[in-house]
Amino acid sequence: MPARKTPSPVTDRAARGAARRGENAATGRLAGSIRPALTAHADAAPEAVDSATLAEIFRRFQEAEPEPKGELHYVNPFTLLVAVVLSAQATDRGVNLATGPLFAVADTPETMLALGEERVRDFVRTIGLFNTKAKNVVALSRILVEQHGGAVPASLEALQVLPGVGAKTASVVLNIAFGVPRIAVDTHIFRVSNRIPLFIGTTTDKVQAGLEAIVPEPYRLHAHHWLILHGRYTCKARKPECPRCRIADLCRYPSKTTA
Ligand code: SF4
Question: Catalytic one among 168, 206, 236, 239?
């Protein structure tokens, strides 16, 4: 899969219209995974929280979880990269079930390349889009061996040209494996950011750029994980758990749940 391209600029009006129709605002095509996020944006508060409130929100996230961790299993930067590539449109749990046995026999680009596409496909066939993903995992392993001495490059540009690696995957790998304070935006973070709102944006790329600009520096490294975990377990898509939310008094979402 080629690197994800930056979406064409869209107007807020066009985005709201697309959201109502359940379309991808950038392409106009139906996009199932992004539909709930855009819908959440459509009924969010009109203005984002101020900088003092933003800092207090992250202070509380940090107080509750000083060292937040993702839920994908990996043993080194290469297996992290593979796990994130496999996780597109799949659950972390489903990916972990497949990668446990896979990483037991191949946890380096060299061993993954030696395993070959057909064997890799057998390990990951329970994951959606497994044919394409198996092809990408072997192809990216070949590039790492031939062009990077078997190492995962700590560079957005070098990561983004790998098969199956877009800006979001590259940002996640840079953040977790190399401690780069990037805030990759998935459907959870997109929803949470537009709902509270931390930063209001019509595409994941815009929200990522916005959050990276406004999240106070001491919180930027872990912001990705705090926001994903908050969206996954508290600020859920269909029914956010507002009564037990640690930032409910700071959140401006007009449709908070009461029970
Ligand atoms: S109060 Fe509700 S809508 Fe606001 S962040 Fe918490 S769970 Fe989400």
Answer: 168
Q: Is 152 left (phi over 0), alpha (psi -120 to 50) or beta?
A: beta
Residue pLDDT, tens place only, 36-85: 444 445 566 779 999 999 999 999 999 999 999 999 999 999 999 999 99
Q: From CA 211, how far away is CA 209, in angstroms rounded?
A: 6
Two tokens at 75?
Answer: 């043993």
| Statement: residue 17 has pLDDT above 50 | no
Q: What is the pLDDT of residue 42?
A: 54
Would residue 236 show up in a list of annotated catalytic residues for this protein? no
The verdict on whether 168 is a catalytic residue reads: yes
* Residues 67/99, Cβ–Cβ less than 8 Å: no
Ligand 1 centroid to Cα of residue 163, in Å, is 36
- Name the domain boundary from 122, 141, 165: 165
- State the alpha helices, DSSP H only, in 152-214: 156-160, 167-178, 187-195, 204-214
Higher pLDDT, 241 or 7: 241
Q: For the chain, how many structural domains are there in total?
A: 2
Q: If you measure from the C-alpha of residue 256 to the centroid of ligand 1, how many angstroms do you get, rounded to a whole number?
A: 6
Question: Does residue 51 lie within any of the structural domains?
Answer: no
**Among residues 183, 43, 195, 23, which one has the least CA distance to residue 10?**
23
pLDDT, tens digit (0-9, with 9 covering 90-100), for 204-253: 999 999 999 999 999 999 999 999 999 999 999 999 999 999 999 999 99
Domain boundary, last residue among 165, 185, 204: 165
Q: Global pTM?
A: 0.81
Provide the token pair at 203: 């595409």
